[in-house]
Amino acid sequence: MDRNPLGPSRRDVLRGALAAGAAVTLSGCGAQADAPHVVTVDQWRQFKGATLNFISENTAPTAAIAANTRPFTDLTGITINIVTLELTALVQRVALDLASGHAQYQVIYADPYQVLAPYQRGLVDLRTMQADPNLPHLPGGIADFIPAQMDAAGRFVDPNAYYTLPYDAPTMIWQYRRDLFDKYHDRMANDLGFDPTPSGERTWDEYYRIANWFNKHAGSDVKYGTGHQARQHDSLMNDFSNVLWSYGGAYFDNGKEVGRIGSRDPGPCRLDSDAAIAGAEFYQKLLAIADPASTTWDWDGVGAAFRAGRLAMCPNWHEFAASNEQVMPGKTGYSPLPRGPVATANMYGGTGVGISGNTRPHERGAAWLFIVWATSPQTQLANLKSKAGGGTPTRTSVYELPEVRAAEKRPSPMPNMLTAAAVRQAWEPDKIGLRPKIPMWNECNTAIFTQLSRMLTGGATPPDAMRTIKARVDQIVARGWVA
Amino acid sequence: MSATEAVPRHPPVSAAPRGTPQSPLEETGRGTRWAVWVILALFMLWTLVPLVWMLMSSFKNRTDVTAATPQALFQPTLDNYRGLFSGPNNLTPYIWHSVLAAGISAVLAVCLGSLAGYGLARTAMRGKRHLAFWIISTRMAPIAAVVVPLFIIFRGLNLIDTIPGLVLAYLTFNLPFAIWLMSAFFAEVPPSLEESALVAGCTRWQAFWTVILPLTKAGLVTTFILCLVFAWNDYAFAVVFSGPNSQTLPIAASQLVTQTGVDWGQLTAIGTIVVVPMMLAGLAVRRWLVTGLTLGAVTGE
């Protein structure tokens, strides 16, 4: 076939296609526009017309806010889109977003261990926002946030800077069948030789003996005395750490500070210490009399088993109180976790909300408005009352409100507040349990719960498991972290 | 002489006499046949019980769905489905995004895969086998290996959080699969058929469109359904490339895994909504699907 000499050659067509592709690419790579800004005396309306994206784990406060974003839009004129993801997916998405140089998500739910520590350099130091005279300040300042939570969820390495505002505060406490403890109180006290009523003054050894007593004497009411979130999962590390710390063990030297403020170089792992091994041995002994299904449960599993009436007690996140009250109204009691020979510890799992460092100036201002509003006393109170959410406030002032105080007693319109007395103690600086806030925690965590799981299923002795974890964690930490 | 006249007439098909074995299985002893039936029954249970359980759980209330002793008899409720279509996380946009992204990507994969597969099947170029393997090997790469570079490209092209972005992402794994599968179907079609069409005056395109393509209907349907299922069920790409304006059904399901537990009732309801359309699509085209999955071996096409 003859080619038309006047028509485009194949090479011309290819060149044209390449040029068109490059043009499309370059136009796509153009700078993204900042949020609109209007000059107004009302600081809350200056970014009217902006749209923000907030990426969050599906937590109680986020569910409550997502159910009704109108108050924020009415106040500011800003539209807020909320994307909720399971935590692992959220971490992956946030990491990509921060690395890309653009902020698809301006507001970030920043888990202290999986987002804040590894990606702190991608988050805005919120002191700059609080100091900006053109932006509204935090009501009550940061001093209104519960101090241990402000440190754990908001800070990293620099004790003065803060990158997030505490947003939720799940904390592990002792949850027990109050009706059964009342029913068997005298018999148990007589048999065991101590008052079995759960409190922070009970010891883990007494917890073990109470669980064993239920196993032997209360089969008509519950199948097992205790159940645990001991699946090969993050939950196992949480459950074990309470015992580890109470026995005087620690993941690293200066463990309290590494948990509270965090560190990029925490030094050698100390899980091979005698105290840590003693804690592991007790944990193995405790799990041996616990519901055998414990090794298949995370917090959801143990919570469901407790609500189904299978267990007399369990350590679990305090925000499960709302579900407990829904299924077993009035039958559940809450207390801080038992103490060990050395200390007491209640694992804290709270998170903060921060602002992406990739935001443009007006976007950043709009994002600040949102996090100030989302953590304000009014919003936290509204979340507490929300049927879609619940959650627990992170501000001292909210716990002091008369209607919140009143909700600490049954019948409570805010069932999570039934745990207030327990968590108030659990959040005291010497009682809060803080896992290491280090950038490489996610990988260390996997090594920890994998070996713990081997220990519980007979694959390793407690000393072997602790030494293996130490060796693995030291390797991970020695590699360092670049982000 | 027309092509139909050239085909010799077969005697009409009638049922085999009673007792005549119709398959190798029927030629075996009673014990073997029983063993095969038992294995098939077990396999059916293995595959159906989880689906039936999911369907039943989607009609259970919060207490029944997590009861310590699973219950087969319960008071059914539509609360889980109602919950999915009301409140802040209304499922409707998620369904719409899934339909668009999976549907368009499957159609494009079949269209482009057919053209490329035909070319691959008929070309006599040097290194054809290597090229074919390279195409399918891109499908073998773990998603984690391609997510980051694709994210950077998509970010540059402003395709993050868009339906076209998701379609393109799904094409990255569906297209190699479609090319590979369709080239196998085209290779089964004797070249003499298209040669006859060319001799009869058809262009290459007409031969492809009017002769070859209709003969690979089973392949087209199989490829479309498989691509649709892959895209419909995708989570790994959706979690990275979607956003508030493009989230799909698997993302909606993951949102029910919350910090304070899993909403099993709604999760099984979403699972049912995800599974049922694909099952119906598979059932609607099962004749071609069975033929296609066996590359024509069942019906002798």
From TrEMBL, chain B:
Keywords: Cell membrane, Membrane, Transmembrane, Transmembrane helix, Transport. It is found in: Cell membrane. GO terms for biological process: transmembrane transport. GO terms for cellular component: plasma membrane. Residues 95-285 form the ABC transmembrane type-1 domain. It is a multi-pass membrane protein. Residues 1-27 are annotated as: Disordered. Pfam families: BPD_transp_1 (PF00528). CDD domains: TM_PBP2. It comes from the Bacteria. Its main location: membrane. The chain crosses the membrane at residues 34-56, 94-119, 131-154, 166-187, 208-232, 264-285. Belongs to the binding-protein-dependent transport system permease family. PANTHER family: INNER MEMBRANE ABC TRANSPORTER PERMEASE PROTEIN YCJP, MALTOSE TRANSPORT SYSTEM PERMEASE-RELATED. This is Carbohydrate ABC transporter permease.
